[in-house]
Amino acid sequence: MTANDPSSTSLQLTADGQLRHFLTLDGLNRALLTEILDTADSFIEVGERSIKKVPLLRGRTVVNLFFESSTRTRSTFELAAKRLSADVLNLDINTSATSKGESLSDTLLNLEAMASDMFVVRHSQSGAPHFIAESVTPGVAIINAGDGRHAHPTQAMLDMLTIRQHKGRFEGLKVAIVGDVLHSRVARSQIRALNELGAVEVRVIAPATLLPRDVESLGCTVEYDMARGMKDLDVVIMLRLQKERMEGALLPSEREFYRLYGLNREKLALANPECIVMHPGPINRGVEIESAVADGPQSVILNQVTNGIAIRMAVMSMAMGGQMAERSRRQEGRAQA
Amino acid sequence: MTANDPSSTSLQLTADGQLRHFLTLDGLNRALLTEILDTADSFIEVGERSIKKVPLLRGRTVVNLFFESSTRTRSTFELAAKRLSADVLNLDINTSATSKGESLSDTLLNLEAMASDMFVVRHSQSGAPHFIAESVTPGVAIINAGDGRHAHPTQAMLDMLTIRQHKGRFEGLKVAIVGDVLHSRVARSQIRALNELGAVEVRVIAPATLLPRDVESLGCTVEYDMARGMKDLDVVIMLRLQKERMEGALLPSEREFYRLYGLNREKLALANPECIVMHPGPINRGVEIESAVADGPQSVILNQVTNGIAIRMAVMSMAMGGQMAERSRRQEGRAQA
Amino acid sequence: MTANDPSSTSLQLTADGQLRHFLTLDGLNRALLTEILDTADSFIEVGERSIKKVPLLRGRTVVNLFFESSTRTRSTFELAAKRLSADVLNLDINTSATSKGESLSDTLLNLEAMASDMFVVRHSQSGAPHFIAESVTPGVAIINAGDGRHAHPTQAMLDMLTIRQHKGRFEGLKVAIVGDVLHSRVARSQIRALNELGAVEVRVIAPATLLPRDVESLGCTVEYDMARGMKDLDVVIMLRLQKERMEGALLPSEREFYRLYGLNREKLALANPECIVMHPGPINRGVEIESAVADGPQSVILNQVTNGIAIRMAVMSMAMGGQMAERSRRQEGRAQA
């Protein structure tokens, strides 16, 4: 899928350009990305109240459809949905109906027939949420909670929200993404978003064995040497070393990786003094990042977690809003016909 | 248990004839079955709203007590309870307290003492929900979500609702149930309901090896040849081939079964042109039913799923209503004494 | 930890002496224990309503953080939280993020960053809830749902509530705790509470192999012979034989234990005629207690379960209240500075 694949654009946007699914950042323009960030900002305040509830999805049924288990991601979507007042159904599909030999497509048709309003989908195969969005009944919103190596767009957006909170803008920023870009779900989405929102440079820092072949075509510069890569940075985003996804011997050793690409105080000192440090979690302390950096004054790692709930509330409520607007149009269309 | 076992009648009905448990269709007369269908009809509309909530069970505690796991059935009961505004507790008893050596009876007493209002029970042994209903504290409603080979009464009622929606009546209808009647939880309940509601003929179509010995005593005719069996049908209900329950070699092969009893377009063409096609799901495509039929214009399989939520909302709210009426009478009785 | 460890006192109480965590009964004075019982009494009535809800924790996020699974305990906390109108997230940590190599401390920081208001913690290691309470962000309340052999303070408090309901007072009561005190989470908490509330004698009855070395220093008398121990009792609390925790051959046999320390009708007849019988459940019938006693007129075992929900509602709402009061003070402090 290219950076502006028109099919995914028309799939996830209504004719008016409103979000109706949230599958990928591809094809979302600066205005829409900014609308997501602004909506999330309004939900940050909800998380600080003692009554952390808004009625936007009251009486709606949100199904967490996890074909690949991830307690952390599922918990954030579950909390986001509950704070929007939705009813939540958690389905771990590995252990469920498919064991009776039912196809994915039949499972989905059944869940739709139960009057579900939204599926939050996590799948180990790239494109699964797109496939579901293409086949789903009109009115049901699909949210991508991570698919294969392809995308993890709510993670990328919570990173953008965190950058905007701390830097106040994207224009002129120099941002680096460090580490296992090859196996990362989120790096592509981050590069796309940073470019669209106006960062002046997105730099990827990694050994050649952990970079995809087409990496420069994603809209970034490449740096193999971390010391050089840290220069002038405003934001450094560390990636998690996806040990469980490494298929062969792409790395000499964890220790060697840490020596070359792990973020410690010495390397961080090479960046701008206000450079913020981000990481999607869970952290491998001493593998990608030194504890003194992860817990240090430049780290905004826990802000990312807090922002994750707000971003999920934002895309869920916006997609539901888009679905409702489209439904009204369909009903008007039928009334006039 | 015979078709009109007086003990189960008095167990599941109040002195006034209201539902207080929902265990079996045995002993429920046409008026009560029709009341369930009418109540469910009113909940169909709730499922179409954006706010799919009614406050009928607000503040009530519903415990899904699944001694045999079934994600699909549990999900429909969970959604039904949440749309009635109940609090839901899911307990998978295989992995729970009984592993500490506690008896079923002690587990139940404990759950009752937690002020539960309703148990939705699924068990691999026939009669388990009856047993629980006999021993439970007054005020707690038991809903049968499938017990052994005995009954699956909410499934049978959602089938009745689907037939009434599409045919407008039961009088004069010819209905066939096709396939593995021997291992089916639902066939007995379906036959009972169809007879009570006025169907002119209930036909069972299956090889002799997949029929119980007493099948005709259930109130149906028997046909071994599917071509003959399809004649003049208004409704054909396919059963799932319960492969996991087959204990021996009751079938020559799946392919042979499909050739003889699988529903394809050719066989369906032998029925009335408006004949509807039903299946409880999950579908074994190419084993009991051809995809072109399952997805075709005569199929109402997904309507069954939608109706499943409405039927479950209906029996849950009616049983709770019966329990409350009985409680009021008990309190009045004590006040007068 | 000694009976009045000042560090745990200051950890779980605000400067004004309000509860802000609920970790142990150590350091809680009679006034505060009585306040918990009185608050629970007011929730007993909530459990008897048809709408079993109060809005005290509406919009709050309660995380059940179970490092050691216990369906029974988790269910009571889940119901208590839902009846207080909280949103509940159940996390079984054995099967979750820690499998990705994340430290406990990082998991907690992440959950706090999701704007959780309360962690209900169960852990196989003594002191884990204290450790968490020491490191948690201000504003988040920790409730101990059982840690190692150390404490299970909500269980002890539901026992106190049950005694007060049936005896009307603690002053002058003679109470025995019988059985496996060595492996019991709750015996220490019970002894502490009974002494603080004014019981005249707390007696421990067990073989020497099932008693901790320092048992008398806990504030109890010791009796090895059950017949002598039953004399003049107002309350007898049987402990569960923690078979799964016995590491060596501390007992000759279950049968021998039952003969010597099992509570049967003969032994119970040696106590006061109004002596009540308690057990934390799940019961090992015929191991610690005869069925005729467990189900007999002096048994209040099921009242304990009902009271368990009310006690959990009480400590959750009181700790949340303490956190909010403290938060207000912090904000005032900042406003004045």
From TrEMBL, chains A, B, C:
It comes from Marinobacter iranensis. Residues 20-165 form the Aspartate/ornithine carbamoyltransferase carbamoyl-P binding domain. The keyword Transferase applies. Belongs to the aspartate/ornithine carbamoyltransferase superfamily. ATCase family. It catalyses: carbamoyl phosphate + L-aspartate = N-carbamoyl-L-aspartate + phosphate + H(+). InterPro entries: Asp/Orn_carbamoyltranf_P-bd (IPR006132), Asp/Orn_carbamoylTrfase (IPR006130), Asp/Orn_carbamoylTrfase_sf (IPR036901), Asp_carbamoyltransf (IPR002082), Asp_carbamoyltransf_Asp/Orn-bd (IPR006131). This is Aspartate carbamoyltransferase. Pathway: Pyrimidine metabolism; UMP biosynthesis via de novo pathway; (S)-dihydroorotate from bicarbonate: step 2/3.
